[in-house]
Amino acid sequence: MVAAPGLDVAPALRQRIADLYCEYCDALDDGALERWPDFFTATCLYKVVPRENVERNLPIGLIYCESRAMLTDRIVALRQTALFAPRVMRHMISGLRVRAVEADALRVTANFTLIETLVDQPSRVFLAGSYRDVVVEDAGTLRFAEKLCIYDSTIVPTSLVFPI
Amino acid sequence: MVAAPGLDVAPALRQRIADLYCEYCDALDDGALERWPDFFTATCLYKVVPRENVERNLPIGLIYCESRAMLTDRIVALRQTALFAPRVMRHMISGLRVRAVEADALRVTANFTLIETLVDQPSRVFLAGSYRDVVVEDAGTLRFAEKLCIYDSTIVPTSLVFPI
Amino acid sequence: MVAAPGLDVAPALRQRIADLYCEYCDALDDGALERWPDFFTATCLYKVVPRENVERNLPIGLIYCESRAMLTDRIVALRQTALFAPRVMRHMISGLRVRAVEADALRVTANFTLIETLVDQPSRVFLAGSYRDVVVEDAGTLRFAEKLCIYDSTIVPTSLVFPI
Q: Given a cut of 60, is residue A115 above it in pLDDT?
Protein backbone atom coordinates (compact mmCIF):
# COMPACT_ATOMS: atom_id res chain seq x y z
CA MET A 1 0.00 0.00 0.00
CA VAL A 2 1.25 3.42 -0.86
CA ALA A 3 1.83 6.16 1.67
CA ALA A 4 0.72 4.21 4.70
CA PRO A 5 -2.96 5.07 4.46
CA GLY A 6 -4.73 4.92 7.76
CA LEU A 7 -1.65 5.57 9.86
CA ASP A 8 -3.00 8.56 11.66
CA VAL A 9 -0.51 10.41 13.83
CA ALA A 10 -1.48 13.73 15.34
CA PRO A 11 0.51 16.63 13.88
CA ALA A 12 1.72 17.72 17.31
CA LEU A 13 3.16 14.26 17.97
CA ARG A 14 4.77 14.13 14.53
CA GLN A 15 6.40 17.44 15.33
CA ARG A 16 7.69 16.23 18.68
CA ILE A 17 9.22 13.20 17.00
CA ALA A 18 10.87 15.40 14.37
CA ASP A 19 12.22 17.59 17.16
CA LEU A 20 13.60 14.54 18.96
CA TYR A 21 15.62 13.55 15.91
CA CYS A 22 16.82 17.13 15.38
CA GLU A 23 17.94 17.35 18.98
CA TYR A 24 19.63 13.94 18.82
CA CYS A 25 21.58 14.83 15.69
CA ASP A 26 22.48 18.30 16.92
CA ALA A 27 23.88 16.95 20.18
CA LEU A 28 26.11 14.49 18.32
CA ASP A 29 27.11 16.95 15.61
CA ASP A 30 28.00 19.53 18.25
CA GLY A 31 30.27 16.96 19.87
CA ALA A 32 28.16 16.96 23.05
CA LEU A 33 28.60 13.21 23.38
CA GLU A 34 27.87 13.23 27.12
CA ARG A 35 24.29 14.17 26.29
CA TRP A 36 23.84 11.08 24.13
CA PRO A 37 22.75 8.56 26.81
CA ASP A 38 19.99 10.92 27.95
CA PHE A 39 18.18 10.35 24.65
CA PHE A 40 17.56 6.75 25.72
CA THR A 41 15.43 5.16 28.40
CA ALA A 42 17.26 3.65 31.41
CA THR A 43 16.72 0.17 29.97
CA CYS A 44 17.14 0.37 26.24
CA LEU A 45 18.61 -1.28 23.20
CA TYR A 46 21.20 0.39 20.97
CA LYS A 47 22.59 -1.67 18.13
CA VAL A 48 24.73 -0.95 15.12
CA VAL A 49 24.37 -3.70 12.53
CA PRO A 50 25.43 -4.08 8.90
CA ARG A 51 22.50 -4.41 6.55
CA GLU A 52 23.81 -7.75 5.39
CA ASN A 53 23.23 -9.23 8.83
CA VAL A 54 19.71 -7.89 9.03
CA GLU A 55 18.83 -9.42 5.68
CA ARG A 56 20.20 -12.79 6.76
CA ASN A 57 18.51 -12.53 10.15
CA LEU A 58 21.88 -12.59 11.87
CA PRO A 59 21.32 -10.59 15.01
CA ILE A 60 25.01 -10.01 15.56
CA GLY A 61 25.84 -6.36 15.56
CA LEU A 62 29.03 -4.45 15.72
CA ILE A 63 27.86 -2.56 18.73
CA TYR A 64 25.33 -3.66 21.31
CA CYS A 65 24.22 -1.80 24.43
CA GLU A 66 21.22 -2.58 26.57
CA SER A 67 21.13 0.20 29.11
CA ARG A 68 21.76 3.91 29.41
CA ALA A 69 24.65 3.04 31.73
CA MET A 70 26.34 1.07 28.96
CA LEU A 71 25.93 4.03 26.63
CA THR A 72 27.54 6.26 29.24
CA ASP A 73 30.42 3.81 29.53
CA ARG A 74 30.94 3.99 25.79
CA ILE A 75 31.24 7.75 25.88
CA VAL A 76 33.67 7.66 28.79
CA ALA A 77 35.80 5.13 26.93
CA LEU A 78 35.58 7.17 23.75
CA ARG A 79 36.73 10.32 25.53
CA GLN A 80 39.66 8.48 27.08
CA THR A 81 40.93 6.87 23.93
CA ALA A 82 43.49 8.68 21.85
CA LEU A 83 43.22 6.36 18.92
CA PHE A 84 41.12 8.51 16.72
CA ALA A 85 41.96 11.65 14.85
CA PRO A 86 39.69 14.58 15.62
CA ARG A 87 36.76 14.60 13.29
CA VAL A 88 33.39 16.20 12.87
CA MET A 89 30.29 14.14 12.14
CA ARG A 90 27.28 15.69 10.48
CA HIS A 91 23.96 13.83 10.51
CA MET A 92 21.64 14.16 7.56
CA ILE A 93 18.21 12.60 8.09
CA SER A 94 15.63 11.89 5.43
CA GLY A 95 12.29 10.13 5.29
CA LEU A 96 11.49 10.25 8.99
CA ARG A 97 8.29 8.30 9.39
CA VAL A 98 6.08 6.73 12.03
CA ARG A 99 5.55 3.14 10.97
CA ALA A 100 3.34 1.89 13.79
CA VAL A 101 1.57 3.30 16.80
CA GLU A 102 1.47 0.77 19.62
CA ALA A 103 -0.09 1.00 23.08
CA ASP A 104 2.87 2.75 24.64
CA ALA A 105 5.43 3.05 21.88
CA LEU A 106 5.96 4.36 18.38
CA ARG A 107 7.92 2.57 15.72
CA VAL A 108 9.84 5.17 13.73
CA THR A 109 12.17 4.78 10.77
CA ALA A 110 14.41 7.18 8.88
CA ASN A 111 17.31 7.19 6.45
CA PHE A 112 20.59 8.69 7.58
CA THR A 113 23.82 9.76 5.96
CA LEU A 114 26.76 10.76 8.12
CA ILE A 115 29.22 13.19 6.60
CA GLU A 116 32.64 13.00 8.18
CA THR A 117 35.24 15.73 8.14
CA LEU A 118 38.80 15.17 9.31
CA VAL A 119 41.30 17.93 9.83
CA ASP A 120 42.75 19.22 6.58
CA GLN A 121 40.55 16.95 4.51
CA PRO A 122 37.40 17.58 2.52
CA SER A 123 34.09 16.37 3.91
CA ARG A 124 32.97 12.97 2.68
CA VAL A 125 30.29 10.37 3.13
CA PHE A 126 31.17 8.27 6.15
CA LEU A 127 28.13 6.05 6.53
CA ALA A 128 24.67 5.65 5.03
CA GLY A 129 21.85 3.54 6.36
CA SER A 130 18.60 3.57 8.23
CA TYR A 131 17.25 3.78 11.75
CA ARG A 132 14.60 1.41 13.05
CA ASP A 133 13.66 2.92 16.37
CA VAL A 134 11.16 2.53 19.16
CA VAL A 135 10.24 5.85 20.74
CA VAL A 136 8.41 6.06 24.05
CA GLU A 137 7.08 8.74 26.34
CA ASP A 138 9.32 8.69 29.39
CA ALA A 139 8.36 11.10 32.16
CA GLY A 140 7.06 13.67 29.73
CA THR A 141 9.96 13.37 27.30
CA LEU A 142 10.29 11.31 24.13
CA ARG A 143 13.19 8.89 24.36
CA PHE A 144 14.53 5.92 22.43
CA ALA A 145 13.67 2.58 23.98
CA GLU A 146 15.35 1.01 20.96
CA LYS A 147 17.63 2.38 18.29
CA LEU A 148 18.73 0.00 15.61
CA CYS A 149 21.26 1.58 13.23
CA ILE A 150 21.56 -0.44 10.04
CA TYR A 151 24.43 0.64 7.81
CA ASP A 152 24.73 -0.20 4.15
CA SER A 153 28.39 -1.02 3.79
CA THR A 154 29.99 -4.38 4.39
CA ILE A 155 33.31 -2.96 5.48
CA VAL A 156 33.66 -1.82 9.05
CA PRO A 157 34.57 1.83 9.39
CA THR A 158 36.83 2.25 12.39
CA SER A 159 35.04 5.31 13.64
CA LEU A 160 31.86 3.32 14.25
CA VAL A 161 32.81 3.77 17.89
CA PHE A 162 31.13 7.15 17.59
CA PRO A 163 27.42 7.22 18.31
CA ILE A 164 25.38 6.83 15.15
CA MET B 1 8.68 36.11 -4.24
CA VAL B 2 10.03 34.33 -1.23
CA ALA B 3 8.53 31.22 0.27
CA ALA B 4 5.65 30.88 -2.19
CA PRO B 5 3.18 33.09 -0.34
CA GLY B 6 -0.40 32.22 -1.03
CA LEU B 7 0.31 28.60 -1.85
CA ASP B 8 -2.01 27.14 0.68
CA VAL B 9 -1.85 23.39 1.10
CA ALA B 10 -3.73 21.73 3.93
CA PRO B 11 -1.38 20.18 6.53
CA ALA B 12 -3.03 16.78 6.15
CA LEU B 13 -2.35 16.77 2.42
CA ARG B 14 1.23 17.95 2.93
CA GLN B 15 1.68 15.05 5.31
CA ARG B 16 0.25 12.56 2.84
CA ILE B 17 2.66 13.82 0.19
CA ALA B 18 5.59 13.53 2.59
CA ASP B 19 4.48 9.98 3.40
CA LEU B 20 4.30 9.14 -0.30
CA TYR B 21 7.94 10.13 -0.80
CA CYS B 22 9.00 8.27 2.33
CA GLU B 23 7.24 5.15 1.12
CA TYR B 24 8.69 5.48 -2.36
CA CYS B 25 12.24 5.83 -1.10
CA ASP B 26 11.86 3.08 1.47
CA ALA B 27 10.60 0.62 -1.13
CA LEU B 28 13.59 1.30 -3.37
CA ASP B 29 16.12 1.39 -0.55
CA ASP B 30 14.78 -1.91 0.78
CA GLY B 31 15.32 -3.42 -2.66
CA ALA B 32 11.58 -4.04 -3.09
CA LEU B 33 11.78 -3.03 -6.74
CA GLU B 34 8.64 -4.96 -7.68
CA ARG B 35 6.65 -2.43 -5.64
CA TRP B 36 8.00 0.46 -7.69
CA PRO B 37 5.42 0.49 -10.54
CA ASP B 38 2.58 0.64 -8.02
CA PHE B 39 3.67 4.16 -7.06
CA PHE B 40 2.62 5.33 -10.52
CA THR B 41 -0.74 5.67 -12.27
CA ALA B 42 -1.51 3.16 -15.05
CA THR B 43 -0.72 5.80 -17.64
CA CYS B 44 2.20 7.83 -16.45
CA LEU B 45 5.46 9.44 -17.40
CA TYR B 46 8.79 8.48 -15.86
CA LYS B 47 11.85 10.19 -17.24
CA VAL B 48 15.48 10.40 -16.20
CA VAL B 49 17.17 13.38 -17.82
CA PRO B 50 20.50 15.15 -17.35
CA ARG B 51 20.11 18.72 -16.17
CA GLU B 52 21.98 19.91 -19.19
CA ASN B 53 19.19 18.70 -21.47
CA VAL B 54 16.51 20.37 -19.37
CA GLU B 55 18.34 23.70 -19.53
CA ARG B 56 18.66 23.43 -23.31
CA ASN B 57 15.06 22.29 -23.67
CA LEU B 58 16.20 19.01 -25.13
CA PRO B 59 13.51 16.56 -24.12
CA ILE B 60 15.72 13.57 -24.70
CA GLY B 61 16.18 11.55 -21.58
CA LEU B 62 18.24 8.58 -20.69
CA ILE B 63 15.19 6.68 -19.58
CA TYR B 64 11.63 7.14 -20.73
CA CYS B 65 8.57 5.16 -19.70
CA GLU B 66 4.95 6.09 -20.30
CA SER B 67 2.98 3.44 -18.49
CA ARG B 68 3.08 1.35 -15.36
CA ALA B 69 3.49 -1.69 -17.59
CA MET B 70 6.72 -0.27 -18.99
CA LEU B 71 7.97 0.30 -15.47
CA THR B 72 7.17 -3.31 -14.63
CA ASP B 73 9.10 -4.42 -17.71
CA ARG B 74 12.11 -2.46 -16.53
CA ILE B 75 12.10 -4.22 -13.19
CA VAL B 76 11.77 -7.64 -14.78
CA ALA B 77 14.69 -6.85 -17.07
CA LEU B 78 16.70 -5.50 -14.17
CA ARG B 79 16.12 -8.64 -12.13
CA GLN B 80 17.18 -10.85 -15.04
CA THR B 81 20.34 -9.06 -15.88
CA ALA B 82 23.54 -10.14 -14.24
CA LEU B 83 25.51 -7.17 -15.41
CA PHE B 84 25.53 -5.23 -12.24
CA ALA B 85 27.33 -5.81 -9.00
CA PRO B 86 25.08 -5.99 -5.95
CA ARG B 87 24.64 -2.57 -4.48
CA VAL B 88 22.51 -0.72 -2.02
CA MET B 89 20.93 2.61 -2.88
CA ARG B 90 19.92 5.03 -0.18
CA HIS B 91 17.64 7.94 -1.05
CA MET B 92 18.07 11.23 0.75
CA ILE B 93 15.33 13.77 0.05
CA SER B 94 15.42 17.45 0.88
CA GLY B 95 13.24 20.45 0.16
CA LEU B 96 10.05 18.59 -0.66
CA ARG B 97 7.57 21.22 -1.73
CA VAL B 98 4.21 21.64 -3.42
CA ARG B 99 4.74 24.09 -6.25
CA ALA B 100 1.23 24.24 -7.69
CA VAL B 101 -2.21 22.95 -6.87
CA GLU B 102 -4.17 22.22 -10.01
CA ALA B 103 -7.72 20.97 -10.47
CA ASP B 104 -6.82 17.33 -10.10
CA ALA B 105 -3.08 17.26 -9.64
CA LEU B 106 -0.27 18.62 -7.49
CA ARG B 107 3.07 19.73 -8.83
CA VAL B 108 5.72 18.68 -6.33
CA THR B 109 9.48 19.18 -6.37
CA ALA B 110 12.31 17.95 -4.18
CA ASN B 111 16.06 17.57 -4.18
CA PHE B 112 17.52 14.09 -3.99
CA THR B 113 20.89 12.56 -3.35
CA LEU B 114 21.41 8.85 -3.84
CA ILE B 115 24.12 7.22 -1.78
CA GLU B 116 25.41 4.03 -3.32
CA THR B 117 27.18 1.24 -1.48
CA LEU B 118 28.88 -1.63 -3.26
CA VAL B 119 30.17 -4.72 -1.54
CA ASP B 120 33.44 -4.10 0.28
CA GLN B 121 33.46 -0.44 -0.60
CA PRO B 122 32.61 2.66 1.38
CA SER B 123 29.34 4.45 0.71
CA ARG B 124 29.56 7.32 -1.74
CA VAL B 125 27.45 9.84 -3.58
CA PHE B 126 26.00 8.19 -6.66
CA LEU B 127 23.69 10.84 -8.03
CA ALA B 128 22.32 14.23 -7.05
CA GLY B 129 19.48 16.08 -8.66
CA SER B 130 15.86 17.02 -8.37
CA TYR B 131 12.41 15.59 -8.91
CA ARG B 132 9.71 17.47 -10.78
CA ASP B 133 6.64 15.39 -10.19
CA VAL B 134 2.91 15.42 -10.75
CA VAL B 135 1.01 13.70 -7.96
CA VAL B 136 -2.63 12.71 -8.31
CA GLU B 137 -5.29 11.07 -6.21
CA ASP B 138 -5.85 7.66 -7.77
CA ALA B 139 -8.59 5.55 -6.19
CA GLY B 140 -7.89 6.94 -2.74
CA THR B 141 -4.12 6.71 -3.01
CA LEU B 142 -1.58 9.32 -4.01
CA ARG B 143 0.41 8.23 -7.04
CA PHE B 144 2.83 9.74 -9.51
CA ALA B 145 1.26 10.67 -12.84
CA GLU B 146 4.66 12.10 -13.78
CA LYS B 147 8.09 11.75 -12.29
CA LEU B 148 10.86 13.68 -13.93
CA CYS B 149 14.27 12.89 -12.42
CA ILE B 150 16.81 15.53 -13.37
CA TYR B 151 20.36 14.62 -12.43
CA ASP B 152 23.21 17.07 -12.15
CA SER B 153 26.08 15.21 -13.74
CA THR B 154 26.93 15.11 -17.42
CA ILE B 155 28.42 11.66 -17.30
CA VAL B 156 26.09 8.69 -17.42
CA PRO B 157 26.36 6.42 -14.43
CA THR B 158 25.83 2.85 -15.53
CA SER B 159 23.54 2.04 -12.66
CA LEU B 160 20.97 4.53 -13.86
CA VAL B 161 19.03 1.43 -14.82
CA PHE B 162 17.94 1.36 -11.19
CA PRO B 163 14.79 3.33 -10.37
CA ILE B 164 15.61 6.85 -9.25
CA MET C 1 16.36 18.40 27.86
CA VAL C 2 15.29 16.37 24.90
CA ALA C 3 13.30 17.74 21.99
CA ALA C 4 13.10 21.31 23.21
CA PRO C 5 9.97 20.89 25.26
CA GLY C 6 7.93 24.03 25.58
CA LEU C 7 9.16 25.55 22.34
CA ASP C 8 5.77 26.06 20.83
CA VAL C 9 5.72 27.18 17.23
CA ALA C 10 2.45 27.27 15.33
CA PRO C 11 2.32 24.70 12.53
CA ALA C 12 1.57 27.37 9.93
CA LEU C 13 4.69 29.29 10.90
CA ARG C 14 6.82 26.13 10.90
CA GLN C 15 5.56 25.48 7.41
CA ARG C 16 6.40 28.98 6.23
CA ILE C 17 9.92 28.57 7.59
CA ALA C 18 10.31 25.23 5.83
CA ASP C 19 9.08 26.87 2.63
CA LEU C 20 11.61 29.68 3.03
CA TYR C 21 14.49 27.20 3.16
CA CYS C 22 13.10 25.24 0.20
CA GLU C 23 12.82 28.42 -1.82
CA TYR C 24 16.30 29.56 -0.82
CA CYS C 25 17.89 26.25 -1.80
CA ASP C 26 15.91 25.97 -5.02
CA ALA C 27 16.96 29.44 -6.15
CA LEU C 28 20.64 28.62 -5.60
CA ASP C 29 20.41 25.12 -7.04
CA ASP C 30 18.66 26.47 -10.12
CA GLY C 31 21.54 28.90 -10.58
CA ALA C 32 19.23 31.89 -10.07
CA LEU C 33 21.91 33.68 -8.08
CA GLU C 34 20.43 37.12 -8.75
CA ARG C 35 17.50 36.13 -6.55
CA TRP C 36 19.78 35.40 -3.61
CA PRO C 37 19.98 38.92 -2.04
CA ASP C 38 16.18 39.11 -1.96
CA PHE C 39 16.14 36.38 0.71
CA PHE C 40 17.80 38.83 3.10
CA THR C 41 16.67 42.01 4.80
CA ALA C 42 18.18 45.29 3.56
CA THR C 43 20.47 45.37 6.58
CA CYS C 44 21.61 41.87 7.32
CA LEU C 45 24.51 39.69 8.24
CA TYR C 46 25.81 36.87 6.04
CA LYS C 47 28.88 35.05 7.23
CA VAL C 48 30.69 31.91 6.18
CA VAL C 49 32.92 30.65 8.97
CA PRO C 50 34.86 27.44 9.58
CA ARG C 51 33.62 25.52 12.61
CA GLU C 52 37.05 25.73 14.14
CA ASN C 53 36.73 29.51 14.44
CA VAL C 54 33.30 29.29 16.02
CA GLU C 55 34.56 26.86 18.65
CA ARG C 56 37.48 29.15 19.48
CA ASN C 57 35.24 32.22 19.46
CA LEU C 58 37.21 33.69 16.60
CA PRO C 59 34.68 35.79 14.75
CA ILE C 60 36.76 35.91 11.60
CA GLY C 61 34.95 34.42 8.69
CA LEU C 62 35.89 33.69 5.17
CA ILE C 63 33.02 35.75 3.87
CA TYR C 64 31.32 38.64 5.57
CA CYS C 65 28.50 40.79 4.21
CA GLU C 66 26.35 43.18 6.19
CA SER C 67 23.78 44.40 3.72
CA ARG C 68 21.70 43.18 0.82
CA ALA C 69 23.70 45.54 -1.38
CA MET C 70 26.91 43.71 -0.50
CA LEU C 71 25.28 40.43 -1.37
CA THR C 72 24.25 41.86 -4.74
CA ASP C 73 27.84 42.99 -5.29
CA ARG C 74 29.05 39.47 -4.64
CA ILE C 75 26.74 38.04 -7.27
CA VAL C 76 27.76 40.64 -9.84
CA ALA C 77 31.41 39.86 -9.17
CA LEU C 78 30.73 36.16 -9.33
CA ARG C 79 28.99 36.49 -12.70
CA GLN C 80 31.88 38.53 -14.10
CA THR C 81 34.64 36.25 -13.02
CA ALA C 82 35.76 33.51 -15.33
CA LEU C 83 37.87 31.78 -12.76
CA PHE C 84 35.56 28.96 -11.96
CA ALA C 85 34.57 25.96 -13.95
CA PRO C 86 30.84 25.57 -14.46
CA ARG C 87 29.36 23.56 -11.67
CA VAL C 88 26.03 22.68 -10.16
CA MET C 89 25.40 22.95 -6.44
CA ARG C 90 22.68 20.94 -4.79
CA HIS C 91 21.58 21.83 -1.27
CA MET C 92 20.48 19.09 1.08
CA ILE C 93 18.95 20.33 4.34
CA SER C 94 18.28 18.27 7.43
CA GLY C 95 17.15 18.96 10.96
CA LEU C 96 15.54 22.34 10.32
CA ARG C 97 14.46 23.61 13.70
CA VAL C 98 13.25 26.74 15.46
CA ARG C 99 15.53 27.22 18.44
CA ALA C 100 14.08 30.38 19.93
CA VAL C 101 11.12 32.65 19.36
CA GLU C 102 11.98 36.25 20.17
CA ALA C 103 9.85 39.38 20.08
CA ASP C 104 10.35 39.99 16.38
CA ALA C 105 12.68 37.26 15.23
CA LEU C 106 13.09 33.49 15.09
CA ARG C 107 16.36 31.71 15.67
CA VAL C 108 16.50 28.78 13.27
CA THR C 109 19.17 26.13 12.77
CA ALA C 110 19.66 23.35 10.24
CA ASN C 111 22.32 21.02 8.92
CA PHE C 112 23.35 21.32 5.30
CA THR C 113 25.33 19.27 2.83
CA LEU C 114 26.18 20.75 -0.55
CA ILE C 115 26.70 18.30 -3.38
CA GLU C 116 28.83 19.69 -6.17
CA THR C 117 28.87 18.47 -9.74
CA LEU C 118 31.45 19.61 -12.25
CA VAL C 119 31.26 18.89 -15.95
CA ASP C 120 32.27 15.33 -16.78
CA GLN C 121 32.75 14.43 -13.15
CA PRO C 122 30.62 12.50 -10.72
CA SER C 123 28.71 14.37 -8.02
CA ARG C 124 30.49 14.63 -4.70
CA VAL C 125 30.22 16.20 -1.28
CA PHE C 126 31.45 19.76 -1.48
CA LEU C 127 30.68 21.12 1.97
CA ALA C 128 28.89 20.04 5.13
CA GLY C 129 27.96 22.20 8.05
CA SER C 130 25.16 24.04 9.75
CA TYR C 131 23.17 27.22 9.50
CA ARG C 132 22.52 29.46 12.49
CA ASP C 133 20.01 31.95 11.18
CA VAL C 134 17.79 34.74 12.35
CA VAL C 135 14.53 34.91 10.40
CA VAL C 136 12.24 37.92 10.53
CA GLU C 137 8.94 39.01 9.07
CA ASP C 138 9.77 41.73 6.58
CA ALA C 139 6.80 43.36 4.87
CA GLY C 140 4.80 40.15 4.90
CA THR C 141 7.66 37.93 3.80
CA LEU C 142 10.07 35.84 5.83
CA ARG C 143 13.66 36.89 5.26
CA PHE C 144 17.06 36.27 6.77
CA ALA C 145 18.28 39.05 9.06
CA GLU C 146 21.28 36.84 9.78
CA LYS C 147 22.67 33.77 8.11
CA LEU C 148 25.71 32.22 9.68
CA CYS C 149 27.06 29.31 7.60
CA ILE C 150 29.44 27.19 9.66
CA TYR C 151 31.31 24.61 7.63
CA ASP C 152 33.01 21.56 9.06
CA SER C 153 36.23 21.42 7.09
CA THR C 154 39.44 23.25 7.92
CA ILE C 155 40.55 23.56 4.33
CA VAL C 156 39.12 26.35 2.23
CA PRO C 157 37.26 25.16 -0.82
CA THR C 158 37.80 27.67 -3.62
CA SER C 159 34.18 27.65 -4.67
CA LEU C 160 33.11 29.13 -1.34
CA VAL C 161 32.56 32.25 -3.41
CA PHE C 162 29.22 30.69 -4.28
CA PRO C 163 26.37 31.46 -1.91
CA ILE C 164 26.00 28.80 0.76
A: yes
